Amino acid sequence: MVVAVIVGTRPQNIKLYSLVKMLERGNVDFYIVHTGQHYDYGLDRMFFEELGLPEPRVYLGVGSGTHGYQVATIVLRLEKYFIGEKPSLVIVPGDTNSALGGALASVKLGIPVAHVEAGLRSRLPFMAEEVNRVLIDHMSDILFAPTIYAYENLLREGVDVSKVFLTGDVMVDNIVMLRNEIERVQNEFSDLEYAYVTIHRAENTDNPARLKGIFEGLRVIAESFDLKIVFPMHPRTHIRARKYGLEKILSHKNIHVLEPVSYLKSLRLQKDSKIVITDSGGVQKEAFVFKKPTITLRETTEWVETVEYGWNILTNPVKKDIVKAVQEAMEAKPINVDPYELYGGGKASLRILRIIKEYIS
Ligand code: UD1
Ligand code: UDP
Q1: Range of 194's domain?
Q2: Based on the domain organization, do 88 and 141 belong to the same domain?
Q3: Is the C-beta atom of 42 inside 6 A of ligand 2?
Q4: Do 125 and 199 fall into the same domain?
Q5: C-alpha span between 266 and 240 (Å, rounded)
Q6: What residues form DSSP beta bridges with 231?
Q7: Is any ligand 2 atom within 6 A of the Cβ of residue 301?
Q8: Number of domains in the chain
Q9: Is any ligand 2 atom within 6 A of the Cβ of residue 283?
Q10: What is the CATH number of the domain that holds 197?
């Protein structure tokens, strides 16, 4: 009985940490498949080294390209591998093209799929990740919902209740497991009051007007508020900013644009920040766990609880709205909920392990 775990992008490589720990703890025979969707050191290898993750057994080497190219190439290459080495179960975390390609290749060969982070919905039907989530959920045999909202979404969509498990969130397990390591990370910005910023979503980066609005908002914050900006920039954002000639907007003494940082550094930078400004799914949730007021530059979020508890402000990517949201965030009242408990109390991977062991036995 062998389990294959499919990763290949930054957030999936990160989610691998608690998943690997739990599979090792349960003596489950497993191996890792890496699609190669992310390949830069700072989006990929850095996490394997920092977190001591096992080497992937299979590299599909897909790289960048259109969504059709990425998904189709993963299906072709993975199918070829799985025909020779058919696993008993495939685990796919998240909502990227790597997750969809991995799930599709598996179900077409009759291999059962377990989806980690099932049931999240942004209610934007054409958003790339929403398309992937819906498709993966409806082809999976086991669905691990990170929140009660995600669990209810699946039942509402008619997914058989016997397949759905409310487990909590594996990224919160990571934070619990790595709390000492996070404390040991050096933060050269710890003496400053700063906003931690990450932006990479296609909807923001591929639209010059939106990206300009975001950069202008950050510039006003750096000039007018007593707040620095610490911004590790995703390569997608970097490439687009250069193409649209927007880099100079961020050229200011209070704005620190960095290369993508390691996972532990990202958590430490969030933990020490005053507020967080992001469009990342994972960062919204981490900021909530660290009780940092968050401005999310999106219309909706799949992490609805962060908004419901008044800690996450969904904001248009335009200068004046960003500035208004920052004012609001700086005055946010303390959060009145235990975010760890909301996400399963750090025990999601343990619950997933029990269910997987029962399934494969
Ligand atoms: C992908 C996921 C997104 C996830 C994000 C995490 C999909 C549809 N999108 O978005 O859900 O939030 O990863 O970070 O799966 N690039 C590099 N180096 C790399 C990888 C990419 O420079 O190692 C550049 C390339 O120009 C590429 C662009 O980034 O075309 C976009 O990469 P891609 O993997 O298509 O999507 P992401 O924006 O990274
Ligand atoms: N992250 C990181 N380095 C960075 C920026 C983010 O390690 O420079 C981490 C972040 O803390 C979170 C994860 O990357 O754990 C989120 O991934 P990303 O934003 O790429 O994707 P999403 O969650 O939006 O799919």
Answers
A1: 183-342
A2: yes
A3: no
A4: no
A5: 22
A6: 257
A7: no
A8: 2
A9: yes
A10: 3.40.50.2000
Same domain, 40 and 161: yes
115 classed as catalytic: no
User: How far does residue 245's CA lie from ligand 1's centre (Å)?
Assistant: 20
Tokens of 235: 């390569």
Q: Do 264 and 155 share a structural domain? A: no
Q: Which amino acid is at 121?
A: R
Sequential pLDDT tens for the chain (361 residues)? 999 999 999 999 999 999 999 999 999 999 999 999 999 999 999 999 999 999 999 999 999 999 999 999 999 999 999 999 999 999 999 999 999 999 999 999 999 999 999 999 999 999 999 999 999 999 999 999 999 999 999 999 999 999 999 999 999 999 999 999 999 999 999 999 999 999 999 999 999 999 999 999 999 999 998 899 999 999 999 999 999 999 999 999 999 999 999 999 999 999 999 999 999 999 999 999 999 999 999 999 999 999 999 899 999 999 999 999 999 999 988 888 999 999 999 999 999 999 999 999 8
Ligand 1: list residues with CB < 6 Å: 9-11, 37-40, 43, 64, 67, 96-97, 128-129, 200, 202, 235-236, 239
